[in-house]
Write a structure and sequence with these properties.
The chain is 4% helix and 32% strand. It is mostly beta strands and 342 residues long. Strands 3, 6, 8, 9, 10, 11, 13, 15 and 16 form a nine-stranded mixed sheet that branches. The two termini are 35 Å apart.
């Protein structure tokens, strides 16, 4: 399996005319590791097309969006094109775990839920390909609840974040982030950490095919580390798509949504074409894919797919439902979530 992963990555780099090793080299322009300076918050605004969005605001913690929409359903006849229902008031909760001066791009070939062409298990996180020793940063403030070996000896850090997630009905979820495959750890259990603080260094310990950071974000109904990091559990029950949680790259937003068949049932592992993402070139983007049975929707949105770092502009999405192509036009605004329902 290691050989398959390395060969796949190398071939993609060659196809795109670059040396895959060059993008993994640490950047000499990066500042010294530690707590990186704060970054301006992305402004919030409403941009509503078909459908309406309302936001419930508890007094504490992070707010989950609640959408009430007369959204456009999928047509099972001839392919149709309609505007995206709404660009939602979405606030990314966390910063990225890799500095912008390193390779902060998310690997496109092994995204959340991907099997990399059937070669790997359904992915429970996202990857950042960087050289051994690249600083790994905490994506938010919190307490270290795991620091040490996890699955197959992967050096791992887990953080329970300070602000819980409040769902529209009042239910609370505990939010954790987990960082796998490190070559070294810079924190211990019980340590308090701040966002952008260095907590580890990129490596390839455990079940890994190359030097990279594997990031997971979990939203659990109880405060239990055993539900988050368990070397015996391959598919954690409360893992969510990290792309819904971390800030997008400058000039980009996120496309998320749902795909239903003519009977109103979710369509698993449907391929959604038409999202244009030129970067990163070494792991080219081909299509989005709805979640399979091993990857559950987040409790915030109930989405069937979510893709971040999508360049602002118009994207014409196509997916095959009940043997027919269905189209939607999605207008992406930087720093916002565009919600699409097929």
């Amino acid at each position: 399996m290691v050989a398959i992963g390395k060969e796949y990555f190398t071939e993609l780099a060659i196809i795109n005319g670059i040396d895959g090793r060059s993008i993994l080299a640490p950047s000499s322009s990066c500042p010294a590791p530690g707590l990186v300076g704060s970054r301006a918050q992305i402004p919030l605004r409403w941009i509503v097309g078909r459908g309406a969005a309302v936001r419930e605001r508890p007094t504490d913690g992070f707010f989950a969006d609640k959408v009430i929409a007369d959204q456009v359903g999928a047509s099972a006849s001839i392919a149709s094109t309609t505007p995206a229902p709404a660009t939602r008031d979405w606030r990314p909760r966390f910063v990225r775990p890799i500095r912008p001066c390193d390779n902060a791009h998310i690997d496109q070939t092994y995204r959340w839920g991907s099997t990399m062409g059937g070669n790997f298990q359904p992915h429970q996180g996202i990857e950042f390909n960087n050289a051994d020793g690249t600083p790994v940063l905490a994506i938010g403030d919190g307490e270290v609840v795991w620091a040490g070996p996890a699955e197959r000896g992967a050096l791992t850090v887990a953080i329970r974040h300070d602000d819980p997630l409040f769902l529209p009905g009042g239910e609370q979820r505990f939010v954790f982030s987990v960082y796998y495959h490190n070559s070294g750890l810079d924190v211990a259990v019980g340590d308090r950490v701040r966002k952008r603080q260095q907590i580890a260094r990129v490596g390839n310990t455990g079940r890994a095919t190359n030097d990279h950071l594997h990031l997971e974000v979990h939203a659990a109904p109880v405060d239990s580390v055993a539900l988050i990091v368990n070397p015996e559990v391959r598919f954690p029950p409360h893992a969510t798509n990290p792309e819904l949680w971390i800030e997008p790259l400058p000039g980009t937003g996120i496309i998320a949504g749902q795909v239903f068949d003519s009977a109103g049932k979710p369509v698993p592992q449907a391929r959604i074409y038409g999202i244009s993402k030129p970067l990163p070139r070494e792991t080219p983007f081909a299509f989005a894919e709805t979640y399979g049975p091993r990857n559950l929707p987040s409790p915030m949105y109930g989405e069937h797919f979510a893709i971040s770092d999508v360049p602002a502009g118009v994207h014409r999405l196509r997916v095959k439902i009940d043997g027919q192509w269905v189209e939607r036009e999605a207008i992406v605004v930087a720093g916002q979530m565009t919600w699409v329902r097929f």
